[in-house]
C-alpha cells in the first residue's frame, strides 16, 4: 500500500507544479502586454508634443540657439518693484512719485511808497510733483523723474550710469552737479527744513541745480573716501547757450555718523549768452523773497564750499560755508568792466527727534509703539524717518563788490560807478540777509511728512526789505509731502 500512496503523492505534486508554471507564464505575458500598452501611450503623447513644438531658433551659422532661462517677480518692499532675469542679467524697476504742497506767508509785510519795495504775497503752491521710475539692468542703472512744475526743462533726475564697481562709476544725463552734500547728495524728500540754506539755495544761489552732462564718481572703503567730478551745461536746459561748460568737483568722507566734504566749481560765463552776458547768483529768503536781484556778469566764475555733519542717536548738527566770485568784464554799454561780485555765506542746523518708534520700520500706524525723549531713537540722514522732530537753523548770506576791485579814477567814471542795483552797474549795491529759523517736522509714517518753519529775517537794505520802514521781517512756511 505504501508504494502506491507514494506514487499518488508524486503525481499530485507534479500536477500542482505544472499548474503553477502555467499561471506564471500567463502572468508574465499579461504584464508584458500592459507594459507594451503603456509604452504605446507614452509614445503617442511624445509624438503629440513634438507635433506642437515650436521650431528651434537657428543662428546665422546654422547652429541651434540654446534657450535662456528667464524669470519674473513683482511685489512691495519699501516700494513697488518688478524684478527678474533676462539672458543671465538681473533687472529691477521701481516706480516712484512725490508730491510737495507748500504755503508761504509773510506776516506784517507792507509796501513803502518812498522806497517802492515789492510786497511779497501769501501763496499756496505745488512745490514739486514728480513721477518716474528707477532701476538697474545688470551693472547699468537708470532713473527718470518727470516734473511738470520745473521750467524750462520739465525733468529732474534723468540719467543712465555704469556701476560695475563702487570705486568707479560713470553717469550721463540730467542730474545735480556735485558741489555740497545737502543739495547734490541729499534728496529734497529728506531736507531738515522746507528749503535749503540761503547761500546754497535751490539752484539760484551758489550751488548748481540740475544740469545736462556727464559725471565720474566713486566710493572707497564703504564711504571712507568719495569723489565726484562732472562736466555739464551751464544753463538748466537741454540747449547750449554758452560754449563753455560748468566744471564741478567734490571730495568727502563718512566715518561713523560724521561727514565732511569740500566742493568746488568753475565756469567761463557770458561767452555766448544774450548780449554776451550771464546772470549772477540770486539772493532769496527761505520763502523765496528776492532781496538781491541778479546782475550781469561775464568772465570767470569760481566757488568753493566746505560742509560737515554729525548724526548721533536722535540728534544731529550740520553746517557749512560757501564763497564765490564772479567777474564782470565789459558789462557796461561802453565796454567798461565792473568790479567782480562776491557771494558768500554760512549756516548751522541743529535737530532732535522728540518722539518716535525705536523698532525697525516700516511703521504704517502713527503713534503706535512711539517713545518720548528716548536715546534709542535714530535720526536718519538722507533716508525716511518716522516721528516728531524739532530743528533750528542760523544762516547768513552777503552779496557785494569784491575788495580791491577795479578803482575808478576819473570824475566821469566815478559818477558812472556810483553803487547801483542796475544789472549793468559798474559798482553793485550789495545786500545782506541773516535768518534764524525754528521748525517742527512730523512724520506720521515713513511715506508722509508735514513741516512747519517760522523764519525771522534781518535784511541789510531797507529799500529791498519785505516790510516798510524796517530791516526786520518774518516768514512762515508749511509743507505737506507724500512719496512712495
Q: Short summary of the structure?
A:
Helices cover 12% and strands 47% of the residues. It is mainly beta and 484 residues long. The strands form 3 sheets. Strands 3-4-5-6-7-8-9-10-11-16-17-18-20-21-22-23 form a 16-stranded antiparallel beta barrel.
Question: What is the fold-level CATH name, i.e. the topology?
Answer: Porin
Q: How many separate helices? A: 2
Rounded Rg: 37 Å
Neighbour order of strands in the largest sheet: 3-4-5-6-7-8-9-10-11-16-17-18-20-21-22-23
The helix content, as a percent range, equals 10-25%
Q: Biggest sheet, in brief?
A: 16 strands, antiparallel, barrel
Instruction: Please state the average pLDDT score.
Output: 86
Distance between the termini: 106 Å
Structural class label: mainly beta
Query: What is the overall shape?
Result: elongated
Task: List the uncertain runs.
Answer: none
Helix-strand topology string: HEEEEEEEEEEEEEEEEEEEEHEEE
For the record, the CATH class is Mainly Beta
Give me the CATH architecture, please.
Beta Barrel
- Fraction in beta strands: over 45%
Work out the number of β strands.
23
How many structural units, i.e. domains? Answer: 1
Q: In CATH, what is the homologous superfamily?
A: Porin
Amino acid at each position: 500500500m505504501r508504494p502506491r500512496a507514494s506514487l499518488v503523492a508524486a503525481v499530485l505534486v507534479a500536477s500542482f507544479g505544472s499548474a503553477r508554471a502555467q499561471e506564471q507564464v500567463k502572468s508574465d505575458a499579461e504584464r508584458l502586454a500592459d507594459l507594451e500598452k503603456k509604452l504605446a501611450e507614452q509614445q503617442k503623447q511624445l509624438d503629440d508634443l513634438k507635433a506642437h513644438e515650436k521650431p528651434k531658433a537657428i543662428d546665422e551659422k546654422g547652429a541651434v540657439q540654446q534657450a535662456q532661462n528667464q524669470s519674473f517677480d513683482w511685489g512691495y518692499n519699501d516700494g513697488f518693484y518688478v524684478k527678474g532675469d533676462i539672458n543671465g542679467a538681473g533687472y529691477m524697476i521701481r516706480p516712484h512719485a512725490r508730491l510737495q504742497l507748500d504755503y508761504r506767508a509773510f506776516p506784517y509785510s507792507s509796501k513803502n511808497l518812498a522806497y517802492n519795495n515789492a510786497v511779497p504775497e501769501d501763496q499756496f503752491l505745488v512745490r514739486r510733483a514728480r513721477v518716474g521710475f528707477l532701476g538697474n539692468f545688470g551693472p547699468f542703472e537708470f532713473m527718470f523723474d518727470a516734473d511738470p512744475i520745473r521750467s524750462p526743462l520739465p525733468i529732474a533726475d534723468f540719467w543712465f550710469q555704469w556701476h560695475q564697481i563702487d570705486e568707479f562709476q560713470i553717469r550721463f544725463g540730467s542730474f545735480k552737479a556735485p558741489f555740497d552734500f545737502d543739495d547734490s547728495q541729499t534728496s529734497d524728500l529728506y531736507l531738515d527744513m522746507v528749503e535749503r540754506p540761503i547761500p546754497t539755495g535751490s539752484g539760484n544761489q551758489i550751488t548748481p541745480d540740475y544740469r545736462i552732462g556727464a559725471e565720474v564718481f566713486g566710493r572707497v572703503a564703504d564711504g571712507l573716501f568719495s569723489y565726484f567730478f562732472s562736466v555739464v551745461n551751464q544753463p538748466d536746459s537741454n540747449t547750449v547757450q554758452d560754449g563753455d561748460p560748468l566744471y564741478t568737483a567734490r571730495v568727502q568722507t563718512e566715518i561713523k555718523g560724521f561727514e565732511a566734504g569740500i566742493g568746488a566749481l568753475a565756469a567761463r560765463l557770458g561767452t555766448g549768452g544774450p548780449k554776451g552776458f550771464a546772470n549772477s547768483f540770486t539772493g532769496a529768503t527761505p520763502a523765496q523773497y528776492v532781496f538781491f536781484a541778479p546782475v550781469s556778469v561775464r568772465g570767470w566764475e569760481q566757488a568753493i564750499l566746505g560742509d560737515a555733519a554729525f548724526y548721533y542717536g536722535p540728534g544731529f548738527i550740520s553746517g557749512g560755508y560757501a564763497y564765490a566770485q564772479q567777474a564782470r568784464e565789459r558789462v557796461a554799454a561802453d565796454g567798461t568792466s565792473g568790479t567782480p561780485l562776491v557771494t558768500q555765506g554760512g549756516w548751522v542746523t541743529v535737530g532732535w527727534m522728540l518722539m518716535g518708534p525705536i523698532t525697525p520700520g516700516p511703521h504704517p500706524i502713527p503713534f503706535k509703539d512711539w517713545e518720548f525723549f528716548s536715546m534709542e531713537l535714530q535720526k536718519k540722514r538722507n533716508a525716511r524717518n518716522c516721528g516728531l522732530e524739532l530743528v533750528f537753523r542760523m544762516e547768513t548770506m552777503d552779496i557785494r563788490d569784491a575788495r580791491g576791485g577795479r578803482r575808478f579814477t576819473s570824475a566821469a567814471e566815478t559818477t558812472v560807478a556810483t553803487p547801483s542795483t542796475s544789472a549793468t552797474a559798474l559798482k553793485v549795491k550789495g545786500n545782506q540777509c541773516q535768518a534764524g529759523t525754528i521748525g517742527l517736522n512730523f512724520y506720521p509714517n515713513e511715506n508722509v511728512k508735514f513741516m512747519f518753519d517760522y523764519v525771522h529775517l534781518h535784511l541789510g537794505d531797507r529799500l529791498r526789505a519785505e516790510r516798510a520802514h524796517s530791516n526786520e521781517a518774518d516768514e512762515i512756511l508749511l509743507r505737506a509731502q507724500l512719496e512712495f
